[in-house]
Amino acid sequence: FFLMIRRPPRSTPLYSSAASDVYKRQLLYSGFGGLLLVLSAGFLYPAYMTFKALKKNNHDLLANYSKYWVIMSVGVVVHELLAWLVPGFRPFNFLVLGAILLLLKSHAATATTIYDSLIVPTLKKLESDVDSTLKTVESAVAKKEKEAAELKSKAEKKLHEATPKDKSS
């Protein structure tokens, strides 16, 4: 679609105009346009298909999409780290889109292979560490929530005590 966009002729030579148009298209694909493609293909379509699998209670399809979402979440973390380490790398969204399409095209084979060969062994190695870290974080959050509730209760009590009583009744 974007390749069919035509602009009026410029006064500059044809080769520089063509190069400029190619550069602008590349910016569109790698910038917002690339992001839009990645978000649509990587999140909207699989999210809708997961919804459909849940609606039909299709356990096989749900298992496949669960693997996809695990891989996708790892991919998002890797994407953000690489984007931070290598800012301005133009073809990055093309590579991400290619990986997403590869995961979606094979319906489950690629996702299952990646999940079984990379994700599962890594998670098995780290499972006890992750579980203990999660327990520590959960207990810290529960402690902070309890402290916040106590502070709120004290503040409400002080506010209630400080409010003047209506003695006219």
SSE diagram, text form:
Layout: H1 14-30, H2 32-56, H3 59-85, H4 92-105, H5 109-162
Oligomer: single chain
Our count of helices gives: 5
Radius of gyration: 26 Å
Helix/strand order? HHHHH
> What would you call the shape?
elongated
Low-confidence stretches: 1-9, 12-16
Helix content: over 70%
Mean model confidence by pLDDT: 75
Tell me the span between the first and last alpha carbons. Answer: 76 Å
- Find the count of extended strands (DSSP E, 2+ residues): 0
Q: What is the SS-derived class? A: mainly alpha
Main sheet, how many strands, which sense, barrel? none
Strand composition percent = under 5%
Question: What this model shows, in words?
Answer:
With 169 residues, the chain is mainly α. It contains five helices and no strands. α2 (32-56) runs antiparallel to α3 (59-85), α2 (32-56) packs parallel to α4 and α3 (59-85) packs across α5. It is elongated, with a radius of gyration of 26 Å. The model is unreliable at 1-9 and 12-16 (pLDDT under 50).
Can I get a quick summary?
By secondary structure, the chain is mainly alpha-helical. It has helices at residues 14-30, 32-56, 59-85, 92-105, 109-162.
